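Review form for a predicted model. The reviewer records the input and the model, then writes brief findings.
Reviewer: anonymous (R2)
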Amino acid sequence: MTCACASEELILGIETSCDETATAVVKDGRQVLSSIIASQEQIHSLFGGIVPEIASRKHTELLMSVTQKALDQAQVSFDNLSGIAVTNGPGLIGSLLVGVSAAKAYHAATGLPLVGVNHLQAHVAANFAEVCEKPLREADLPAVCLIVSGGHSDLVTIAHATDYEVIGLTRDDAAGEAFDKAARVLQLGYPGGPAMAKAAEAGNPEAFALPRPRISDSLDFSFSGLKTALIRQVQELQGEDEAAPDEQTVADLAASFQAAVVDTLTRNTMQAIEQSGVKHLAIAGGVAANRLLRERLSEECAGVGVELHCPPPELCTDNAVMVAVAGHYLLMTREPDNLDLDVFSAMPRAC
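Model under review:
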């Protein structure tokens, strides 16, 4: 049987797809009662990127205490919950297994309905939470959503909270991945997105003529060529002695690269808006926290009478609120999962 949606339906969300151990309790799919995130950023920054084995071990160490903190913050117990939602992909397979295994254990011990949530669908669902400045509502649909994260730069149309159609995909490097690689080239540290944005604040976005990748007759994204163009520009500046660029040059490179990424994302997104004829645009994923991207999309949307929906930055990066919100809608529309719930590391070609 599907989960009956009570007047106070409380969903526990669990997110362990990468390096954040996160849990949250959300009421009726919108009201955030608690959100706990234990980040491993400091650990992985020592290696310049995520070490999967370390990530999964830390999830195992932290998840039970993080879950209890979320319940305590919400002032509820498992007896008060209506269901459990857990990210089961895409992501790092070891990290996903920790979260899904814990969710199965809670399901077996309590009998609460269990539902696996697509990580990208969860990012989209963050826009429905009441903590957003302009929450997305059923009356706003259909809408277009730009999902920009470390592994994905996708465009989807949203017909319903659980009904998505992918209209643009990542062909190679996603925007977040491109930022990480660019930051590594410029020796700005990890995570790359925030590091590049900070460096770009002191830079000139017109200092270097970097390409704005376009795939003919498509809304798909490709950032590998832009990444290569940056590498070649750095090599040219270094010359034969391979001297590192000075601080201002690095800032200019970061600003030029960020501008190229934002221009490309904005162009394809507004093209999707024009083709679909919708009046609402949502953004989601870690790169959606980028200030320049939010400003550019806000300007473009205002110019064509489209309302922009942006989650707060803490709901753009990986969190469990988005998982609980997505789980709420999934449990209203389909059968719950069971102990056979599996994990997957790659995203199926449809949400």
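Findings: The first strand starts at residue 10 and ends at 15.
Further findings: The domain at 138-310 is CATH 3.30.420.40 (Nucleotidyltransferase; domain 5).
Recommendation: see findings above.
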